C-alpha cells in the first residue's frame, strides 16, 4: 500500500500548515512549526497502534468482536436499547430514547456526510497490515475518517446517559467496545475512532441541550 493511501489525516493537516508557510501565506512561528511536528507524530502513532492491535493474538475475542462490529451497522444495538426504553422505561425512558435517537440522527447527518467527505481517507489495507482474516467484517466503501460507528455509539450513550444517569456507564462501556471493535476488525485506524468518539460526545451533549431548551419552551407555553 502506498503512502498516499495510508497517510493519516494528521499528516495531511501538517502538510497544509507547512505548504502555507512555504508559500508565504502565513508567517513561520514556533507554534505553527510545533503543531505540524505534533500532527506528524500523532499520525505515526495512529499507524503504529493499528499495527500493534493487528499483531496482538487474541483469538478468543475474534468471533465476539466480529459479530458485535457487524451488528453495530446502522446503529442497530442503540435502536434496540431505545425500543426497550420506550416500551418499559416509562416517561423518563421514552424521553431518553427520543433524545438518543435524535443524537444518532444528527451524528449520521454530520459525520457520515460533510466530515467523511472532508476526511477522504481510504480504508486500511488490513491484509497488508496483518489483520487476521478471522477478524474481518465487510469493509465499507465510505471514507475511513472519522468512524461513524464510534460517533453514533458515543452520541447515543452520552445523550441517553444524561437523561438516565443509571445507564451512563453501561452505555459508554458498550459504545467503547463497539469503537474498539472497528480497529480490531481492521476497518478503521485508531485516529478515525478517536475523532468519531469526540464528535459523538459533542453531538450527544448538544442534542441534550437543545432538547432541554425545547422542553423548557413548551413548558412556558402551557
Give the overall form. Answer: flat
Largest sheet at a glance? none
How large a portion of the residues is in β-strands, by DSSP E?
A: under 5%
Task: Name the helix and strand elements from N-terminus to C-terminus, one letter apiece.
Answer: HHHHHHHHH
Which architecture per CATH? Orthogonal Bundle
- Structural class, from helix and strand content? mainly alpha
Number of strands: 0
CA radius of gyration is 20 Å
Q: Total number of helical segments?
A: 9
Question: Please, could you describe this protein's structure?
Answer:
This protein is mostly helical and 222 residues long. Helix content is 74%, strand content 0%. It contains 9 helices and no strands. The N and C termini lie far apart (62 Å).
In brief:
The protein has about 220 residues and is mostly helical. It has one domain (about 60-220): Vanadium-containing Chloroperoxidase, domain 2, CATH 1.10.606. It has helices at about 5, 10-20, 30-55, 60-70, 75-90, 90-120, 150-165, 170-185, 190-220.
Amino acid at each position: 500500500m502506498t503512502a498516499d493511501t495510508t497517510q493519516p489525516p494528521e499528516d495531511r493537516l501538517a502538510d497544509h500548515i507547512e505548504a502555507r508557510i512555504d508559500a508565504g501565506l502565513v508567517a513561520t512561528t514556533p507554534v505553527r512549526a510545533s503543531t505540524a511536528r505534533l500532527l506528524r507524530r500523532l499520525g505515526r502513532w495512529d499507524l503504529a497502534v493499528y499495527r500493534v492491535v493487528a499483531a496482538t493474538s487474541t483469538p478468543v475475542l475474534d468471533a465476539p468482536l466480529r459479530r458485535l462490529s457487524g451488528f453495530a451497522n446502522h446503529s442497530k444495538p442503540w435502536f434496540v436499547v431505545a425500543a426497550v426504553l420506550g416500551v418499559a422505561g416509562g416517561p423518563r425512558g421514552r424521553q431518553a430514547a427520543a433524545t438518543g435517537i435524535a443524537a444518532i440522527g444528527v451524528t449520521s447527518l454530520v459525520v457520515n456526510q460533510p466530515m467523511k467527505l472532508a476526511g477522504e481517507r481510504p480504508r486500511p489495507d488490513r491484509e497488508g497490515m496483518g489483520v487476521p482474516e478471522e477478524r474481518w467484517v465487510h469493509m465499507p466503501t465510505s471514507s475511513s475518517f472519522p468512524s461513524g460507528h464510534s460517533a453514533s455509539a458515543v452520541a447515543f450513550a452520552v445523550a441517553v446517559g444524561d437523561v438516565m444517569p443509571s445507564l451512563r456507564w453501561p452505555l459508554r462501556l458498550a459504545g467503547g467496545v463497539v469503537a474498539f471493535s472497528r480497529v480490531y476488525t481492521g476497518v478503521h485506524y485508531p485516529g478515525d475512532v478517536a475523532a468519531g468518539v469526540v464528535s459523538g460526545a459533542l453531538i450527544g451533549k448538544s442534542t441534550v441541550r437543545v432538547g432541554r431548551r425545547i422542553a423548557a419552551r413548551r413548558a412556558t407555553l402551557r
